[in-house]
């Protein structure tokens, strides 16, 4: 369980994170979503006490990160896969991290195997692909077998198979009751692995809900109806309070009425239907819409 | 704390630049010592001078290389952003800094003891075979060990303050080699007594030998100049510590 309260971070005059509060629940994957530059990475650094906040606090299971003497046993984090010394070997990197929290070299071998890097353990990380570095970062995060995981854009640079691997891995960890917070600037990516979403724009919270609720709240759904008797049908539907948008005289997008309602009205009035199809605006559209609103709202003169 | 020290020790010896620098730090003074012992002049009036030339002078190379390693000890972490991995694993930053101080300080002290000893053994064999008069100076040997420790920590403190090695290493090397030479030349034209206030000039008094024991123009005794250079080192380490604690990682 992560609790953030009123986190605020300014870099000079620029407000990177603005009075941000949210909870991250255990047992599910929570997506941390926002466009590039919206403050996701800064928030992660604030959670871990790496950047000093201008205001606000964050706790992990009730205690601030900095109060843990061996935090890797509680919280594992992958901030940026590039945070490696290029001439240090993968195993040595993990050894150093493990030693700082009293974790054994045996555990290093375990996490290397877990992410499939055993064969390159004795290679310098400077020659690693981005995908290999991401795996090494995940191995480091898993060293202390933590109850909470923070991952900043872990799917970046992975091939489709790697992305699927990460997705299954994180879902598996959440199903064990762990708290998993994973950021992304791509809704399509995070929607596939997350159950809940924390959406931010320009450093402020936009929404903290389930993925389904987010779609309902911000996505549009309508029913595409084709009928040879569209004129008659449209009168009945408008009487029910629905609104119609015509593609052509015989095809309409119906808002505010379900496919069941429309089918029932048509049947009881003897109207033939050639198509009755639920349509959902993509999650991506919904996301772009809300984050763009934030951008516009923010850009307006005060 | 043991874990933090072990972690820093692993980091210290698993980076290629460090491995190369450590090899040079240990090897180059021996080569220089052998060469200087081979060319040492038979007519040197004070036998402590041949000791200084063949033992202390080559060891000074190791002293400065230890300082460079000290700069890199923290600078590399900022350069490659591994400082964020380090402080995420140990959010009590003072523990990390204490562990680095222990690891680099120990290394600096050991080099300061071992390098002149090896140079002494090597050059004494060579010079004795050439019948060059020769006399070791115990105070200079102890002073050099202290100087090596302090210089390593001086580099570490400077690295903590400046963070980027690309800036900190030139500052560390040019300060004694260029800035203090120029300022020293000006001082000696104005008033020789001012030279004692140059930190590295004063620090070198720790390892002074032979006739120049007090060094021309540097008025502090061995111990006082050591305390003076040590104060500079302490000030830099404390300033770096304070900055690292309050800055974003
Ligand atoms: N260390 C820093 N110094 C100055 N500005 C920064 C720093 N880190 C981030 N920013 C700024 O803060 C904002 C948020 O950045 P970031 O947290 O990296 O966003 P995201 O991870 O969502 O892409 C951006 O405008 C970025 O330029
Ligand atoms: Mg980011």
Report on this model:
Chain B: Keywords: Membrane, Transmembrane, Transmembrane helix. Chain B: It holds the Pfam family ABC2_membrane_4. Chain B: The chain crosses the membrane at residues 20-39, 51-74, 102-127, 139-159, 171-190, 223-244. Chain A: Residues 2-227 form the ABC transporter domain. Chain A: InterPro entries: AAA+_ATPase, ABC_transporter-like_ATP-bd, ABC_transporter-like_CS, P-loop_NTPase. The complex is a heterodimer of chains A (302) and B (249). Chain A has helices spanning 40-47, 90-100, 105-114, 130-142, 160-175, 187-193, 211-218, 230-239, 259-268, 283-299, and strands spanning 2-11, 14-24, 29-33, 55-60, 75-78, 148-152, 179-184, 196-201, 204-210, 221-226, 243-248, 251-255, 275-280. Chain A has 302 residues and is of the alpha/beta class. Chain A has 2 domains: 2-217, 3-Layer(aba) Sandwich (Rossmann fold), CATH 3.40.50; 221-280, 2-Layer Sandwich (Alpha-Beta Plaits). In chain A, the strands form 3 sheets. A 6-stranded mixed β-sheet of chain A has the order 5-6-7-3-8-9, with helices on both faces. In chain A, helix 5 links the parallel strand 6 (148-152) and strand 7 (179-184). In chain A, 44% of the residues are buried. Residues 296-302 of chain A have low confidence and may be disordered. Chain B is mainly alpha-helical and 249 residues long. Chain B has one domain (2-246). Chain B contains 9 helices and no strands. In chain B, helix 3 runs parallel beside helix 6 (138-162) and helix 5 packs antiparallel against helix 6. Chain B is globular. The complex binds adenosine-5'-diphosphate and magnesium ion.
């Amino acid at each position: 369980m992560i609790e953030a309260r009123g986190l605020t971070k300014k870099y000079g005059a620029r407000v990177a994170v603005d009075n941000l509060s949210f909870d991250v629940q255990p047992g599910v994957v929570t997506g941390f979503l926002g466009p590039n530059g919206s403050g996701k990475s800064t928030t992660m650094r604030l959670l871990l006490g790496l950047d000093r906040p201008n205001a606000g606090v964050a706790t992990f299971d009730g205690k601030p990160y900095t109060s843990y003497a061996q935090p890797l046993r509680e919280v594992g984090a992958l901030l940026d896969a590039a945070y490696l010394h290029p001439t240090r070997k993968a195993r040595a990197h993990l050894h150093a991290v493990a030693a700082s929290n009293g974790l054994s070299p045996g555990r290093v071998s375990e996490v290397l195997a877990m992410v499939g890097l055993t064969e390159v353990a004795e290679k310098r990380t400077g020659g690693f692909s981005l995908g290999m570095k991401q795996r090494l970062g995940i191995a480091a995060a898993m060293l202390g077998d933590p109850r909470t995981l923070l991952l900043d854009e872990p799917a970046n640079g992975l091939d489709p198979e790697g992305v699927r691997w990460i997705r299954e891995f994180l879902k598996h960890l959440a199903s064990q009751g762990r708290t998993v917070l994973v950021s992304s600037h791509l809704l399509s990516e995070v929607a596939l692995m997350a159950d809940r979403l924390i959406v931010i724009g320009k450093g402020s919270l936009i929404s903290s809900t389930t993925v389904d609720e987010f779609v309902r709240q911000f996505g549009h759904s309508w029913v595409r109806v084709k009928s040879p008797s569209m004129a008659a049908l449209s009168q009945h539907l408008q009487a029910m309070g629905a609104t119609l948008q015509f593609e052509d005289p015989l095809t309409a997008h119906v808002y505010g009425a379900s496919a069941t309602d429309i089918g029932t009205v048509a049947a009881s009035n003897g109207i033939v239907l050639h198509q009755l199809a639920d349509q959902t605006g993509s999650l991506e559209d919904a996301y772009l819409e809300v984050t763009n609103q934030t951008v516009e709202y923010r850009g307006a003169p005060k | 704390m043991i874990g933090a020290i072990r972690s820093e020790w692993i980091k210290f010896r698993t980076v290629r630049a460090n491995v190369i620098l450590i090899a040079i730090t240990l090897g180059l003074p021996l080569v220089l010592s052998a060469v200087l012992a081979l060319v040492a002049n038979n007519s040197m009036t004070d036998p402590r001078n041949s000791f200084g030339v063949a033992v202390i002078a080559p060891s000074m190379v190791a002293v400065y290389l230890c300082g460079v390693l000290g700069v890199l000890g923290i600078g590399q972490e900022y350069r490659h952003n591994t400082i964020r991995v380090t402080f995420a694993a140990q959010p009590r930053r003072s523990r990390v800094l204490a562990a680095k101080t222990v690891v680099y300080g120990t290394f600096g002290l050991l080099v300061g003891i071992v390098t002149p000893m090896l140079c002494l053994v090597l050059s004494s064999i060579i010079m004795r075979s050439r019948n060059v008069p020769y006399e070791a100076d115990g105070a200079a040997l102890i002073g050099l060990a202290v100087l090596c420790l302090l210089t390593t920590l001086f580099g570490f403190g400077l690295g903590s303050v400046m963070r980027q090695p690309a800036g900190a290493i030139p500052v560390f090397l040019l300060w004694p080699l260029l800035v203090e030479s120029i300022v020293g030349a000006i001082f000696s034209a104005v008033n020789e007594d001012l030279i004692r206030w140059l930190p590295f000039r004063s620090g070198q008094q720790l390892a002074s030998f032979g006739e120049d024991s007090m060094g021309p123009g540097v008025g502090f005794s061995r111990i006082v100049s050591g305390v003076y250079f040590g104060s500079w080192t302490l000030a830099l380490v404390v300033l770096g510590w304070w900055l690292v604690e309050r800055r974003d990682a």
